[in-house]
Amino acid sequence: MTGSIAAIGAGLAVIGAGIGIGQIGGHAMDAIARQPEATSKIQTAMIIAAALVEGVALFGVVVALMSK
Amino acid sequence: MASKISTFKPFSSRIFTVFALFIALTARISAQDHNEHHEATVVNDSIGAVDSMAVTTAAPMDAAASHHEAKEEAVDITKVAFEHILDSHSWHLWGEGHDAVAIPLPVIVKGDNGFTFFMSSAFHHDVHGMNVVEVNGDRFVNFEEKIYLASEVANEHGQFLTFNQEGEVANAAALDLSITKNVTQMFISVIVLVLLFSSIAKSYKSHGVTSAPRGKQSFFEPLIVFVRDDIAKGNIGPKYEKFVPYLLTVFFMILINNVFGLIPIGANLTGNIAFTLVLSVCTLIITNINGNGAYWHHILLPPAPKWLYPILIPIEVVGIFTKPFALMIRLFANITAGHIIVISLVGLIFVFKTIYISPVSVAFALFIDVLECLVAFLQAYIFTMLTALFIGSAVAEHHHEEAHGHTAEHH
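^ inputs. structure came back:
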């Protein structure tokens, strides 16, 4: 039973990361559409922000793994 | 720009098609396979052994399980994945159970009669506590890569161990200072880094910084300049020079170990929490030793009403430790998760026991592996950049302090 609760925890962490990365990606698209010449700079910043969000999601996944 | 978008769209739709196909296949095969797979796993767990040898010898004892024995036993992917990402006493190359090919590594353990030394091959690939190694009057067994002092007699599964009610090992654990797989990997990385960078440094000495970079220099010079200019100068400010050696060391140590971890037989060092702990403790010490008056003032006397101090000061003090703690978890979790995904995708072939799933899992594993190459660079960069940011917030003069302090807190 604890296994399934841990899976729910991992799922919740992934929802948060999904929203976060979606926001980052969407806004980066907007920014690129406005200023196509800044594409490379925006992409770099986007990837860094996405990695930070992903890191937070992985905290949740690690806790879910450990609590098992 | 237009060509970029037009090539991107078909590619993503193709990925989507493959993914949809994958989901459909997964659903169908798991529906067929679910029952027998589930029961077989339970059998596996109750015996408490993953070794296929152990399963075949123990299964006849259980009458209900005997008809499953005719079919192949299910592979416990979770167990296999953890075997791959965790540290071990020998460097496993390929093969399973007694046919495994592994590089033996030195085991240095402290038993009742002081420290003893032997090679890990003495355990004969046993990780279930069945093979006793007798050295210097001490008897050791290897149970799931932890070394215990062996019991006098074996239990009913042939293990020289005793278990308590919770199923934990009751034997005394030996103090283990072995040169394990991860330690060996670290030595290899250090040797590679020292050879690489001393030769680069030598070529700067002989040719000077005026000539164009050549050979290895041309690959590493942009990275070094990137760490110095974009990471150190950008985040620390005018006093950056003192911290560049540490940032470069951290960057290249993480990078090389991330890359080594991606090689199929390489060890997963940056996915070991002890390794990332040491790195983040270094960051913690360097940040706080170099913290100036403004930094400590911000922590101990925050710019807020006095009645908030009982809440704010503990938060600020805990904040000193949570920032490096987040660094530790971030690197560990990113690398570990990447490795688990790759092994799980390859493991699909063994879970479904069909060769037809292999194109899908190989394609996905390749895709994730390419993504992991990006993550290898990205995590090295993020660790170094956040370290620089923390140092920057500690050494900044007062008027910079506000801005840096607040950006640092968001991470």
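Chain A touches chain B at residues 36, 39, 47-48, 51-52, 54-55, 58-59, 61-62 (CB under 8 Å). The first helix of chain A runs from residue 2 to 34.
thumbs up if we can close this ticket
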